[in-house]
Amino acid sequence: MFSSDHHDIWDEHQWESHINEMTQRHEHLRDLIESGPGKGPRWLSHIKDFPTKLDDVDAFIEEELLLEESYFPFEDDEDAEGDDVFFNDGDEDDEGLDGDEDGWDPAEDGDADERPMDEDDYLTNDEDDLESLFEDIFEEESDDESMYDYASLENIAIYTDARDLAADLLIFNDSKPHYLEHPGFIFLVSETLLVSTKLAAAYSMGFDVEVLGANIAYCKKALDKTNHTLTHLQSLKDNPLSSSDYYELHRRLFELRNNIAVHIQETRDFFLRQL
Fold first, then answer.
1. Which of 80, 105, 245, 270 has its CA 20 to 30 A from that of 144?
2. Threshold 0.85, pTM exceeds
């Protein structure tokens, strides 16, 4: 555990141990959801419910994330105090905004240009002013800027690659439905979907130094799933997969595995630089 001025920061190993513990604690919930006579994987039931295979994948990922247990080993007191600033009773401040005796008085508070700004003052059609405003914001934050700032999940290549691969596997339901009659192929799809889920869980933890260990821990789980999926894929060569499908899936999984490994190392380096 690393010490900082404000918090005791967990590393990836502590987060990994905690996540494993919470996963085991809630395993009965997963068993309850997925058990039952004649029940197959949940993603299989979504195929007919969603217009596209990507929608199917997204629905599965969303359900899986609901089963994940996220926990922060500290509370951010500053955020809690900040809530009091924005969510107050509305008594004193509201009276001032209404312009009564507690409000702005030009005789006491100066010229109109110095009065408190109301809602209309924030509205502007001047694009140059808006551009200047955002330039100022980014200049102020440039010292803390990193490869992870302002990123969205859809801009993280390893996630989109894993998500697209899972969706392409589901397309075989239309082009080669006999694949989905094979238990080994169904397992392949399930494991590939879980790779996307773990990467989404990693992103959901964020990139602040206090939770980067959890981010890395989830990425490691995605890497582990990818390795297992590659091994399992070999058992499907020639049955049921055709040679062309097998080599294409192997190429994509292999590249995905390598890219996740690189991403983990880059995130570790980023984590260490923040300490």
1. 80
2. no
